[in-house]
Amino acid sequence: KVLIDVPPSDLAEELEQSQTQVQALQDTLQQVLDRREEERQSRQLLELYLQALKKEESILSKAAESEAEPREEMDVVDTGTSSTGVLVKTALSDQTLAVLKGKPAPELCLDSQDLELVVKEDTEVLASALSWDKQKAEALQQACDQELSKRLQQVQTLHSLRSISKGKKTLP
């Protein structure tokens, strides 16, 4: 880096070389530094990708475990009526509502489509359907929104990795 920052004329004089040779040397050094930086960034992206894979794997294994458990609690699912007996219209399925009520971190157990439905649902309707207060329903929606954002970021990272990978294959 120091050799790159030195003016070519001074370096040429010091090395007793022509200015064109020194400029070629500085260009080569800059290319090496650029390549090292690209490699460092690629390693970081690969580490993020591997972390995302591990996280996804643990989520899938937890989901598989929860599906293997007996579903006796499904019988006591709120049928979607409020305490006044009026039917609450929600886009969420009974199964999704059961997951929301029965899991400590339901945002990790739902697929992205269900997460979007939860986020888009009116907070009061969601709170009523789950027999929760509005603050708890808002917190759930925020957690679902954050999980959706994380998943989107993971997808974008994967696309970036693929495009970087494709770009590397075309190089000589």
TrEMBL record:
Domain (DNA fragmentation factor 45kDa middle) ranges: 2-119
InterPro entries referenced in this protein's UniProt entry, alphabetically: DFF-C (IPR027296), DNA_fragmentation_mid_dom (IPR015121)
Gene that encodes it: Dffa
Protein source organism: Nothoprocta pentlandii
Protein name as annotated: DFFA factor
Keyword annotations of the record: Coiled coil
Database matches in Gene3D superfamilies: C-terminal domain of DFF45/ICAD (DFF-C domain)
Residue runs in coiled coils: 15-56
